[in-house]
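**Paired protein data**
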Amino acid sequence: MSALTPTPSFIVADDHPMVRDALALALRAAFPKSEVALAGTLDEASAAIAARPDVDLVILDLDMPGMQGLVGVSALRASYPSAPLVIVSATRNAAAMRQVVEMGAAGFIPKSAPMEEIIASVRAVMRGEIVLPPSAGDALSSTDADLATRAARMTPQQHRVFALMAEGKPNKIIAYDMQIGEATVKAHVTEILRKMGVHSRTQAIVLAQRLALDPGAPPPAPIADEA
């Protein structure tokens, strides 16, 4: 967007009400004529973007219901490729910070940064700059970049199936959660395996864990391959 936009619009997506409200208050103070919509889950963020297709900036937390870390970022990029995104998160995962840019976000802002620094970074993003903290380190490794690119090829519904797979849910439960047929889930799983370049459900889940917020989290319990 242009910094000259007289009434910028924002979506602040974070599941912690105090953080969400503080960001909204700071944005309204920094941009007096701005409009700020709030969301607390990935589904709410998606609905907010759908209702505001011309939103100037979506400020997104990685660790909120439905996100599955970077899987959620990629899902939003697939559903709304023109919506400007910036991540404001507490994660200290340097690879995740770099991967959000690879996935099409305008940058990463640490949630621990002072509010004036967060607003300064928001202004930079709105001028068209890419923002990353020094702790993000060097550019993405070729492996990380390739993983981010592969994940970005999935459709929104495939991302949802992928996220539920990462939670260790079998096809039958995924079908129930998504209110779709089990055969449809199996078809999605087959496409997910193809797009991620793996041959088994377990391999796909390992990659999903690499795209998730906490790289140190234990992997899900092994489950039988169903696709």
